[in-house]
């Protein structure tokens, strides 16, 4: 297997040869981030509550796991931790290869029945790794497998074992290869996995929307469609989550589509989410005409309830 990093190829044999330590000042490729849609002042929680904004946490006051005393501050912090673009720095892969990988990972989630937070964290791990490293096309699938393994270990009490990922990849990669890349990923990410993904914002914004199960499933479907498309990475995760809520409400012909409660808790006004939401709706139209794995994942989820 070959991993191309910092304009150099580092060969990892089946025995997983030791990797050179790459410091911040030597060997590390500098990433120049492209301009993107960043959260505005309102998006980091600077709006003042008004009397017509629903208190969406009132039913969770006695739920210690909901952490209602800190939830607003937590989401302000989440928005400050979002990451940037990277594909223009990649020389061997493009957005079509990324789309194929993410679609395949959605299929892995569907097959192994892992929770949504595992999928969103896995894609986040893939994007963060690609932001720092040049990866060869033949190693992209291996990167995705190892990212799913890491995300499962982080999010689940009893995650799928590495052997299950060997099986799901039809034996294309060995257990040792998957675990070897897992270590490289964790080293490059500084073992930091407590990061905001679109999933974190979806949970909050779905609550703010007062969504029923039908709407919740459709919101996740819209978000997964956005997750596959590299052009959506120019929108920060909170914007994708807010736009998925908006797109789902439009699709279900719900009124009002946006209100003061959603604006307060998402930090975005209706005009701010419209562009991204329209893109999600266009992806939805394509998906209905030519269903792919995200669609069947959504149908399966909808039938469960």
TrEMBL record:
<keyword id="KW-0132">Cell division</keyword>
<keyword id="KW-0131">Cell cycle</keyword>
<dbReference type="GO" id="GO:0016538">
    <property type="term" value="F:cyclin-dependent protein serine/threonine kinase regulator activity"/>
</dbReference>
<dbReference type="InterPro" id="IPR006671">
    <property type="entry name" value="Cyclin_N"/>
</dbReference>
<protein>
    <recommendedName>
        <fullName>Cyclin N-terminal domain-containing protein</fullName>
    </recommendedName>
</protein>
<dbReference type="InterPro" id="IPR039361">
    <property type="entry name" value="Cyclin"/>
</dbReference>
<feature type="domain" description="Cyclin C-terminal">
    <location>
        <begin position="196"/>
        <end position="299"/>
    </location>
</feature>
<dbReference type="Pfam" id="PF00134">
    <property type="entry name" value="Cyclin_N"/>
</dbReference>
<keyword id="KW-0195">Cyclin</keyword>
<dbReference type="GO" id="GO:0051301">
    <property type="term" value="P:cell division"/>
</dbReference>
<dbReference type="InterPro" id="IPR046965">
    <property type="entry name" value="Cyclin_A/B-like"/>
</dbReference>
<feature type="domain" description="Cyclin-like">
    <location>
        <begin position="103"/>
        <end position="187"/>
    </location>
</feature>
<dbReference type="InterPro" id="IPR048258">
    <property type="entry name" value="Cyclins_cyclin-box"/>
</dbReference>
<dbReference type="GO" id="GO:0010332">
    <property type="term" value="P:response to gamma radiation"/>
</dbReference>
<dbReference type="InterPro" id="IPR036915">
    <property type="entry name" value="Cyclin-like_sf"/>
</dbReference>
<comment type="similarity">
    <text>Belongs to the cyclin family. Cyclin AB subfamily.</text>
</comment>
<dbReference type="Pfam" id="PF02984">
    <property type="entry name" value="Cyclin_C"/>
</dbReference>
<dbReference type="InterPro" id="IPR004367">
    <property type="entry name" value="Cyclin_C-dom"/>
</dbReference>
<dbReference type="GO" id="GO:0044772">
    <property type="term" value="P:mitotic cell cycle phase transition"/>
</dbReference>
<dbReference type="InterPro" id="IPR013763">
    <property type="entry name" value="Cyclin-like_dom"/>
</dbReference>
<feature type="domain" description="Cyclin-like">
    <location>
        <begin position="200"/>
        <end position="282"/>
    </location>
</feature>
């Amino acid at each position: 297997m070959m991993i191309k990093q910092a304009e150099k190829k580092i060969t990892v044999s089946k025995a997983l040869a030791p990797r050179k330590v790459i410091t911040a000042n030597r060997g590390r490729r500098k990433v120049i981030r492209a301009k993107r849609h960043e959260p505005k002042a309102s998006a980091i929680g600077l709006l003042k509550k008004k009397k017509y904004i629903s208190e969406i946490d009132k039913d969770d006051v006695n739920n210690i796991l909901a952490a209602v005393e800190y939830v607003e501050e937590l989401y302000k912090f989440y928005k400050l931790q979002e990451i940037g673009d990277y594909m223009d720095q990649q020389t061997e892969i493009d957005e079509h290869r990324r789309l194929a990988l993410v679609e395949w990972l959605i299929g892995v989630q569907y097959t192994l029945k892992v929770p949504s937070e595992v999928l969103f964290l896995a894609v986040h791990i893939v994007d963060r790794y690609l932001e720092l490293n040049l990866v060869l096309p033949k190693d992209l699938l291996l990167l995705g497998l190892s990212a799913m393994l890491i995300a499962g270990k982080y999010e689940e009490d009893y995650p799928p074992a590495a052997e299950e990922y060997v099986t799901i990849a039809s034996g294309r990669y060995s257990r040792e290869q998957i675990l070897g890349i897992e270590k490289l990923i964790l080293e490059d990410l500084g073992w930091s996995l407590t990061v905001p993904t679109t999933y974190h914002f979806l949970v909050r914004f779905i609550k703010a929307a007062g969504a029923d199960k039908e709407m919740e499933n459709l919101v996740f479907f819209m978000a997964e469609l956005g997750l596959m498309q590299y052009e959506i990475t120019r929108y920060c995760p909170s914007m994708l989550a807010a736009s998925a809520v908006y797109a789902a409400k439009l699709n279900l012909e719900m009124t009002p589509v946006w209100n003061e409660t959603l604006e307060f808790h998402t930090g975005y006004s209706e005009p701010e989410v419209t562009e991204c939401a329209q893109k999600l709706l266009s992806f939805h139209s394509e998906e209905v005409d030519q269903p792919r794995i995200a669609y069947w994942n959504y149908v399966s989820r909808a039938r469960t309830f």
